[in-house]
Amino acid sequence: MRIVIRGAGELLVTGGTIVLLFVAYLMWGTALRAGSAQHQLSSELNQQWANVSTGGHRAARPAQPEQLALVTGQPFAYIRIPAFGGRWRFTIIQGTALAQLNVSPGHVPGTQLPGQLGNFAVAGHRVTAGNPFWSLPSLKAGDLVYIDTRLNTYTYRVTGQHTVLPTDTAVVDPVPGHPGQRPAQRLITLITCNPAWTGTHRVIVTGTLVSATGRA
User: Fold this and answer.
1) What is this structure's pTM?
2) 3-state secondary structure 137-167
């Protein structure tokens, strides 16, 4: 009997160790891989911007956002959220399939571009892939979100947060929750899983455009 108990205890310890190692891989192992991917994506984006003449510094108008050529899996902008720390910055790539979200937050296909009338939606992992949106539920009304494109910086102010089921796709409509309605605002929607480890729901953070300025 004592041997059986000892064997069961050893199995539990081994199983617990395996679980801890797996969690560590999800938190930090995938972060190393995503960090390498972010470095490469940032280099690609900076090179693209350096190779295109901007025609000099100019002020951007929210009513006239630039046109962007989007390619699935390719970066086209940066996202910065000061509430997450001064060094928090990720590229935004086109697409939200696992192949894209495993390396970077992704622009939801079919939603608007930064600064456009309607809803610019970005999804990101809460855990794994560098945990980009781990702190998304901590955002509060008034927090700022910056989107840097080749020519402009778009500043959005957080207006609210709520939780929905994964099947609720109306949150990415041009007018969230009102399919077919013509938009009159320039919105941003940030999406991640909740709870962090199960993803049975989605955290939705919403914001509105408050300024758009030309980048030097």
Assistant:
1) 0.81
2) HHCCCCCEEEEECCCEEEEEEEEEEEEECCC
- Provide the sign of the torsion angle of the four alpha carbons 149, 39, 24, 84, taken in this order: negative
Nearest alpha-carbon partner for 63 in 189, 182, 174, 211: 211
Residues 5-58: tens digit of each pLDDT:
655 555 555 444 443 434 444 444 555 666 788 999 999 999 989 876 555 444
Residue range 171-189, pLDDT digits in tens: 999 999 999 999 999 999 9
CATH number for 38-214 (one of 2.40.260.10, 3.30.540.10, 3.40.50.2000, 3.40.1170.60): it is 2.40.260.10
Tokens 């855990």 label which residue?
127
Which amino acid is present at 88?
Answer: W
3 state DSSP class of 61: coil
**Tens digits of per-residue pLDDT, 52-74?**
655 544 444 444 567 888 999 99
Asked if the bond preceding 105 is cis, omega within 30° of 0, the reply is no
Give me the phi and psi of 194, to 5 degrees please. -155, 130
Helix (H) or strand (E) holding 104: none
